[in-house]
Each structure stands twice: as structure tokens, then as C-alpha cells.
Design goal:
single chain, alpha/beta, Rossmann fold, six-stranded parallel beta sheet
């Protein structure tokens, strides 16, 4: 009989990353004992600091009592050390890989040239990291297919754990005097913000667009904005999470992602979960990943990816059909309650971990 599960969250302090914070909370409210053995957040990259930190983590992990060693998202640099500890302690190693560095930097963001030495580094880093882990966490079946096919891995190594969201503490408000559409993000290529700018120009003054965030594609976005001169966009820059959630509670429609990248077709972005947790309807680019959880016209609305005309027409259709908009918002929130809360996702994660424990 399996006792109460004890998990060691290992490596990087993870609360800055919402994925790690959410999953730790989700396990704890499902009565899983989560202890943390993490490196301090000090920004010191000297060899001496790295060696002494690794040694302390190693010693603490060997002395601690737990059933499973779990490295959170963003902790790839700790995988080798974690694997050594898991072998010595004879405990399973779970890694929330969440994204492929190779896919992200080479194909999606195009920061690294394909077929370059650096691209090979990212490819084999991902492959080696996957090889060392006993179980890998990803957010969609489409993402799992990518890893299986790209890195020649067995599907049994992977488990889909949805991103989910905390509930929005701000109560939803509607201003019937204007129709407001909100996008928030980190301005990366898969988000396709350029198509939002072009759609806003096609719609012009009928709809108010609010865009929150900053990042890689920001210079190109602002150049396009100055060229097209749409009169219905507010850029609010980087803002706190609370600010974004308050703005979301007051908008009519939340926007997902629309970019022309393969990765855009494999993910359900975190913003989608936050929108449905806020009891708001969302519109995003159609993809196989979105179809894993949502149904067009029922609990979401989708348009063609990388197509500003399809995006603009969808926004206008929803604006002119309040009944459909309300239905999507209501059903979206029900989808959140059934599948995407910390309680539900934590229970699924807990059951997966149970199956790894050696009796």
C-alpha cells in the first residue's frame, strides 16, 4: 500500500515561473508532501559558486526522505546532478521539460541558425535531458508527438499535464458602451501580434484593442503600428500580473495566439487558461492542440492562424452576437472547472506520481 506521497522539488527556485508555482500548489492541496531543495536565486555564475551550490544540493538531497525527485520547468542545468542523486537513492526522476529549447530557439524564435553548431547543441541537450529522465511532463498531446518524433523517444516517457490557472480574484465586469479586446503576452513569434495589429486596422474604430507586454518582436510590431496607424490600439507595455488580471476582468474578449509557426499549432498558451478562469470568452488560432480541450463555437472561438482578415471577421462576428459570446464565456468557465483548476490538475499529477513509486 502506498503511503502519503513525498516529493522533492529539486534544483531551481521555481516560484517566478507560474508553471512551477501552480504545480507545487496543485500537489499540496491534493495532500502531497512537497519539500524543496533548491539553489539560492543569487545571480552568481562563478565556477566556485556553482560547485559549492551543487555540492550543498547533492548532500541535502541524499539526506532527505522522499519518494520521487522532481525537477521543475527551467531546471535543465540540474538534470545531470538530479540523475546521479536518483540513481544513488533509487528514486524516479521526473522532469517538467515543458518546451523544447531546440524548437524554441531554432525554429520558433529563430534566434539560432538551423544546422549551426549551436542548434546541434540545443538538439542534443534536449535529447540527453529526455534520456536521463524517467518521466517527462508536457502540456499537450501535440507537444508529446513532437518530442517523440524529433528526438526518437518512446511515448511512454511522457505524461500530459495541462498548464491550468489559478482563479481570477477580480470579478468579471462588462462595459456595454464599448467592445474591448485584450491581448497580453511576451511578444514572441508564435503569438502573432502583427496579425492583431493588421486586424485592428481592418476593424478600425469599431473595437478597442488593448495590448499588454513586451519582448522579442516588439521593434517590428511598433514599426508596423507606425506604418498602419490604427486608431483603436492601446499599448500598455509590461505590467504586473495583478494589473493584467484586472484588465482581463473588464474586457469583452481575450485573445490567444495567431502566429505562423509550427510551435503555435502544438500549444495551448497560458493566457487561454487565465481567460477562461476569469469567466471571459477567448478567440485564438485554430490548431490540433486547441482542439484537444476546446470546441469551436461552444467554449472557445477559433480563426485561421496567421490571417488578419479571419481574425478581424471573427472579432466582429462575436461583437455582433452577445448571446454566442456569453455562451462561450460560460462554457469556457465550465471547461476550466472540469479540467484546469489546481485541484483537478493536482489530482491527475498525483495519480501519475503514484504509478512511479516502487513499493
Amino acid at each position: 500500500m502506498i503511503h502519503n506521497i513525498k516529493i522533492c522539488y529539486f534544483g531551481r527556485q521555481g516560484n517566478r515561473l507560474i508553471r512551477n508555482k501552480f504545480l507545487k500548489h496543485a500537489l499540496k492541496i491534493n495532500n502531497v508532501n512537497v519539500q524543496e531543495i533548491v539553489a539560492p536565486s543569487k545571480d552568481d555564475k562563478t565556477i566556485f559558486w556553482k560547485l559549492t551550490t551543487s555540492y550543498r544540493l547533492f548532500v541535502k538531497s541524499l539526506k532527505a526522505d522522499y519518494d520521487i525527485l522532481w525537477v521543475g520547468f527551467g531546471g535543465s542545468k540540474f538534470i545531470l546532478l538530479a540523475k546521479l542523486i536518483s540513481i544513488i537513492k533509487n528514486k524516479p526522476l521526473v522532469y517538467d521539460i515543458f518546451i523544447s529549447s531546440y524548437d524554441t530557439y531554432v525554429h520558433d524564435r529563430k534566434i539560432v541558425r538551423d544546422k549551426s553548431l549551436k542548434s546541434f547543441y540545443y538538439f542534443y541537450k534536449d535529447k540527453f535531458t529526455c534520456y536521463l529522465s524517467d518521466l517527462l511532463l508536457l502540456d499537450t498531446e501535440e507537444h508529446i508527438k513532437y518530442f517523440v518524433n524529433t528526438f526518437s523517444l518512446p511515448k511512454t516517457k511522457f505524461k500530459k499535464i495541462l498548464i491550468g490557472s489559478f482563479n481570477n480574484d477580480y470579478k468579471p465586469i462588462i462595459d456595454n458602451n464599448k467592445f474591448t479586446v485584450l491581448f497580453f503576452g511576451t511578444f514572441i513569434p508564435l503569438q502573432g501580434i502583427e496579425y492583431i495589429i493588421k486586424a485592428a486596422k481592418l476593424i478600425d474604430k469599431k473595437v478597442e484593442f488593448i495590448i499588454i507586454g513586451d519582448g522579442q518582436t516588439s521593434p517590428g510590431i511598433m514599426k508596423l503600428y507606425k506604418k498602419l496607424k490604427p486608431k483603436n490600439i492601446q499599448f500598455l507595455g509590461l505590467q504586473s500580473h495583478d494589473f493584467v488580471m484586472e484588465k482581463l476582468s473588464m474586457c469583452n474578449l481575450g485573445l490567444g495566439i495567431f502566429g505562423n509557426t509550427d510551435k503555435a499549432k502544438r500549444v495551448i498558451p497560458h493566457k487561454v487558461y487565465e481567460i477562461i478562469a476569469s469567466q471571459k470568452p477567448f478567440l485564438t488560432g485554430k490548431s490540433m492542440a486547441i482542439d484537444e480541450l476546446f470546441s469551436h463555437g461552444k467554449d472557445c472561438f477559433t480563426c485561421n492562424l496567421a490571417n488578419e482578415r479571419s481574425l478581424a471577421e471573427s472579432i466582429l462576428l462575436l461583437m455582433d452576437d452577445p448571446e454566442l459570446l456569453n455562451k462561450i464565456a460560460k462554457n469556457g468557465y465550465n471547461t476550466y472547472l472540469r479540467n484546469c483548476t489546481p485541484e483537478v490538475i493536482g489530482a491527475d499529477f498525483k495519480n501519475t506520481l503514484k504509478g512511479l513509486i516502487k513499493n
